[in-house]
Amino acid sequence: MTLCKLYYIVCKRTLGGVMSKPLRQRLTEVSASTFKAERALASYMLAELATLPFETAASLATKVSVSEPTVGRFCRSIGYASFKDLKAHLRSDMGDQPWLIGDRLRDLQVRNRAGEDQLMRGLELEMAALVAVYEIAHSPSWAAVVKRLATARSVFAVGFQTERGMAQIFVNQLQYLRDGVELLDLAGGNFSQVLARNDKDAALVIFEARRYSRLARELATEAKAAGIPVTLITDPFCDWGHEVADEIFVVPTQFNLFWESTAQMASLANLLVNGVFMELGPEVEGRMNKIADLYGRFTGHVGSAEAKPSKVKTTESKDKN
Prior knowledge:
Elements: H1 3-19, H2 23-30, H3 36-47, H4 57-64, H5 68-77, H6 83-94, H7 103-113, H8 118-136, H9 140-151, E1 154-159, H10 164-175, E2 181-183, H11 192-195, E3 202-207, H12 214-225, E4 230-234, H13 241-244, E5 247-250, H14 263-280, H15 284-298
Helix pairs in contact: 2-3, 4-5, 8-14, 9-14, 10-14
């Protein structure tokens, strides 16, 4: 057998194995690549599968900050002749997805089509992103994260810059379901809440999007080195997450708006909380009722009776003298 023929057989077998895999699986495998450009392209494509049909090699290269030839080489490396070929296969991989566009939305599209309404385009992108977030909730690592958040002795969450609010909401909701949930203190400057503990039965959830805080990467690195599992919820441009996190959930953030939106991070956080609720089971209702009762007694809600302080019984002296 000649060398050329052997090379042809090896290549055919290799590409045959690659082409038998769906695009999502191929991108997931490449997202852990040691090459930065490959990681960046794979991570972005995974998060933006629903909008890839609207991209060109040039527009994709611009968004991921790589060259257009790099996009072509990347596509060939995972078994496609070109980016155009990748998009042609994408339709069969995705199938007929339900886009949930009702009569009112179709009417809105028609009325705005002529004016190329930018908000309409943003709405379409957000709907596709929401589908992508719900697909994450069916990924192999999702169940493991949910179980960890339900059973670990301590759960910590943190967000940096504009993502701080995401972590705060996540913690506040999770505290209704279980004990031992804390928001990491950024002011202390050392993250001792999680890094200085002797008990390693803990979990850390980090919310972060570009431009990334240096603290996010350093905290994840230190926590993982200490044996504390790290779950990173981030955007499609994070090419360092796989190095420092046990799981990375990538959500779309570009919706044709002035500022990148982290709204889908909130959706994913809500799904995590719902998953924990389902994992804990019916007994969690007792804790939720107790917290609601405490809030009603100390603070109260609009429309409810005014909260009254508890009466403290005292023993009064009966000595009149």
